[in-house]
Amino acid sequence: MDQAVNKATTRIAILGAGMSGLGAAAKLKEAGYSVIDIFEKSGGVGGTWRDNTYPGCGCDVPSHLYSYSFELNPDWDYKWSLQPQILKYFEDFADKYDVRRHCRFNTEITECRWDDAANSWTLTDRAGKTYTADVLISGLGQLNIPHTPNFPGLDTFKGGAFHSARWDHSVGLKGKTVAVIGNGPSAVQFVPEIQKVVGKMLSFQRSPAWCRPRGQRAYDAKAKKYFAGADWRINWYRWRIRAFADFGFGAFLQKSPLGLADSMKKMCQKHLEDQVQDPVLREKLTPDFEPGCKRILISDDYYPALAKPNVDVLRQGIKAVTPDGVIGEDGQEYKCDAIIWATGFQSTEFLTPMQVYGRNGLSLNQAWKDGAEAFKGMAVSGFPNLFLLYGPNTNLGHNSIILMVEHQIHYMIQCIDKIAEKGVAAIDVTPSAMTAYNVRVQSEIAKTVWASDCHSWYKNEAGKVTNNWYGKTTDYKKETRTPDWTDFEVVKG
Ligand code: NAP
């Protein structure tokens, strides 16, 4: 067997030049693969950090951990960095690892089809052009398609309206009455910024969420010099953040050990009490579900912004849009000049709207009719040589997703090495391995707070938790250390 030759000729297609796609390309190159095409529908790298440009946009995971373990950055300006610096990190990464030359920008893949005879994938872009690959990797993640509910009258609104993830900077908000629909992690970041400029803000909150302090801090030149002095300093800091967050994972279990869930709830309650003096507003902002069921908000300035006199918090959703405003669930019209949809993403639909067809023309939509699932979050039975990064049941509510993606890349490259072996060409996870894995995942998830009673983007409409991993990041690391080849079958073309 001459694996070097096969590695050099294995054609790898990666969808998306965001965090996962860039990391995968860099590590594949390091592993000796060179025929790599990254299909990116936009004109640049960075994915979600390129798309989201709303005021105050940043990460709610500390930056020294929200970065690759193999590309440490001593120069973060803040503990919780802001979008421009995070985007720059990924842009610099693409340059340093020479990934850009693999990118086909402004190329949106609309269909991927497995060719049973040729043992390869055929990709079709929006213009109808086709490409062939031996291995298909999705770096599309879970949060790339914004969700704007299709309310009656949506198109009749006369003012400016846009989704938070596609911020329309041409819409002037100064002095205007602005309705913000939704109160998730995106809203919590931009509301304090725009509250300072709008005339009035109407914050529609269908269900208020738990919020804990952020403790933002800037890193001065001395701190940056300290981190730059030796890698172990960043690695030690990363280890502490990761270990502390994994320890805190117990707060997300229904039978929480060591009173961790209670402590989390008390911390959030105290934060609300400290920051909101008005008992009526406090009551409005008190959630009616257990902390963690939805992602816990992290902010020092969200509650103070909501308490300002130019903000009305409306504990209700909306039911329609009119030319002049929105109709609340109370049936009243609330006039406004602009509407900002902070209504999240089509998180449970994963690769949609792209169409994916596997062996014997099996459609992924059909395979996932009862909710998306994958083996180790990465492989789907019936879809050979397909790997999903940040796929089903790999999201976290407590730690850095980049850790999970690095574990996936490590596992996936071992699979691709297998594919590149002489006489293999294609592998497919067996139906029994896939079923056994997902039965286990769902039974573990039933023990977590994500399965409790609230509406969240972690669940599909039927209530199945399709997005989250059930444990600590170290559990997933163990899960993905080495493939067990009995979980896979070799597919003959
Ligand atoms: P989200 O958490 O899904 O929040 C959407 C909000 O819109 C919720 O308050 C939801 O209300 C509301 N909503 C949805 N449909 C509605 C409807 N039909 N009528 C009224 N309200 C409606 O979305 P997000 O804030 O964009 O955050 C999504 C995820 O993106 C986060 O969990 C996080 O993983 C990621 N994110 C990360 C960062 C970061 O710092 N790393 C920053 C921003 C976002 P209900 O709660 O009642 O459903």
Account of the protein in words:
The protein has 493 residues and is an alpha/beta fold. It folds into two domains: 3-45 and 99-145 and 346-492, FAD/NAD(P)-binding domain, CATH 3.50.50; 154-215 and 253-341, FAD/NAD(P)-binding domain (3-Layer(bba) Sandwich), CATH 3.50.50.60. Helix content is 30%, strand content 16%. The protein has 14 helices and 21 strands. The protein has helices at residues 3-9, 19-30, 48-51, 83-96, 185-195, 221-229, 231-248, 260-275, 279-284, 302-306, 364-367, 401-420, 431-445, 473-479, and strands at 12-15, 36-39, 103-104, 109-115, 120-125, 130-133, 135-138, 160-163, 177-181, 200-204, 211-212, 297-298, 311-314, 318-322, 325-328, 333-335, 338-341, 355-357, 386-388, 427-429, 488-490. A five-stranded parallel beta sheet has the order 3-2-1-7-19, with helices on one face. A five-stranded parallel beta sheet has the order 8-17-9-10-13, with helices on one face. The chain has a four-stranded mixed beta sheet with strand order 6-5-4-18, with no helix packed on it. A hairpin with a 2-residue loop joins strand 14 (318-322) and strand 15. Helix 2 (19-30) crosses helix 12. The structure holds NADP nicotinamide-adenine-dinucleotide phosphate (NAP). Residues 58-61, 143, 149, 181-187, 189, 206-207, 294-295, 317, 342-345, 455, 457 line the site of NADP nicotinamide-adenine-dinucleotide phosphate.
SSE blueprint and pairings:
Blueprint: H1 3-9, E1 12-15, H2 19-30, E2 36-39, H3 48-51, H4 83-96, E3 103-104, E4 109-115, E5 120-125, E6 130-133, E7 135-138, E8 160-163, E9 177-181, H5 185-195, E10 200-204, E11 211-212, H6 221-229, H7 231-248, H8 260-275, H9 279-284, E12 297-298, H10 302-306, E13 311-314, E14 318-322, E15 325-328, E16 333-335, E17 338-341, E18 355-357, H11 364-367, E19 386-388, H12 401-420, E20 427-429, H13 431-445, H14 473-479, E21 488-490
The structure holds NADP nicotinamide-adenine-dinucleotide phosphate.
